[in-house]
Inverse folding.
């Protein structure tokens, strides 16, 4: 009989190496998958892991994809460390994009550069309000935040569709469900010519430093972590569980909303039904592969953005379906879960 026996002291080194081992397993299974589909495995791996780094433009596109993943995952890391399970970052990302678009659409030829700050602030507030609904229902009615936050994603999608198919639809857009293109002054300033990388990258890197300081160098961050690891000890120490809940969800929602604002006012330049790109769900994997540590999340965000770009290239160059991106994301997540399980438990054969 196969059974799992808890290890008395899980290896710290194996815990740190678990994401790398999970990536290796993902590559091996991906190789077998390409072979099963009748594709050249070497070419397939090249599309996913080499092409996104081939030249400066490819690297800039990698950074464009990594920016929203990094920002959302940083907020989720605070949530998960606090034992608050926000699974609805995608919805907060969408509402942040919607509110940011509402502000950006007010810009005209005479609008000043201040509109950029207003767009970003609207995105942050939108994400915080959407996450605040989850916090309120959990705080007042003990509703499960996993279900509430997840269900709110579908509400956010319907709000987005209503606006782009209805009142915000561009009358000059040939009946496409999208808003008009934002004025140049309302779009995010780019860091270099010939590249779509904008100030969002700098904000993401600043967020890495800010979250690291918050989690590991402040009393409030310590209270969040203790509340997640040992709720009873947190109560004994006088830390408020309600404050930890609201702090975690509002920070996470604000980060997701900021990512949504940067996306619509940056690479996209308008609000469309295709704004939901799955970043909010992919960021959950990014956070855990990065071990809920800000520095680790930087590397996992880059890896996940390689999967996004590799999936797009696999469609055009190898004729594979769009779902190949999700397949690699799922392989990475399940490989990580398997590795973490073996780090914490021994596999035993025999009677229970």
């Amino acid at each position: 009989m196969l059974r799992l026996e808890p290890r008395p002291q899980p290896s710290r080194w194996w815990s740190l190496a678990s994401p790398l081992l999970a990536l290796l397993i993902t590559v091996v299974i991906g190789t077998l998958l390409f072979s099963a589909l009748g594709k050249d495995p070497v070419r397939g791996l090249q599309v996913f892991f080499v092409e996104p780094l081939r030249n400066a433009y490819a690297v800039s596109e990698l950074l464009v994809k990594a920016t929203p993943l990094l920002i959302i995952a940083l907020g989720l890391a605070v949530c998960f460390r606090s034992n608050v399970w926000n699974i609805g970052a995608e919805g907060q990302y969408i509402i942040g994009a919607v509110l940011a678009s509402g502000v950006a659409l007010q810009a005209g030829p005479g609008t000043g550069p201040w509109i950029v700050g207003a767009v970003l602030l609207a995105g942050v507030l939108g994400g915080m309000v959407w996450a605040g609904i989850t916090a309120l229902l959990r705080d007042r009615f003990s509703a499960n935040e996993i279900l509430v936050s997840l269900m709110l994603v579908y509400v956010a999608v319907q709000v987005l569709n209503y606006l782009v198919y209805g009142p915000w639809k561009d009358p000059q857009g040939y009946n496409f469900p999208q808003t008009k293109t934002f004025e140049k002054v309302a779009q995010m300033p780019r860091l270099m010519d010939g590249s779509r990388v904008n100030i969002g990258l700098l904000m993401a890197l600043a967020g890495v430093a800010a979250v690291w300081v918050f989690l590991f160098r402040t009393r409030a961050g310590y209270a969040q972590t203790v509340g997640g690891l040992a709720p009873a000890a947190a109560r004994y120490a006088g830390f408020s569980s309600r404050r930890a809940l609201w702090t975690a969800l509002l920070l996470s929602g604000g980060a997701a909303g900021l990512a949504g604002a940067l996306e619509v006012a940056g690479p996209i330049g308008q609000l469309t039904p295709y704004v939901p790109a799955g970043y909010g769900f992919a960021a959950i994997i990014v956070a855990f592969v990065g071990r809920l540590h800000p520095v680790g999340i930087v590397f996992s965000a880059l890896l996940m953005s390689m999967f996004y770009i590799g999936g797009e290239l696999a469609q055009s160059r190898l004729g594979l379906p769009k779902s190949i991106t999700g397949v690699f994301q799922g392989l990475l997540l399940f490989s990580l879960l398997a590795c973490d399980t073996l780090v914490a438990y021994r596999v035993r054969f025999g009677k229970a």
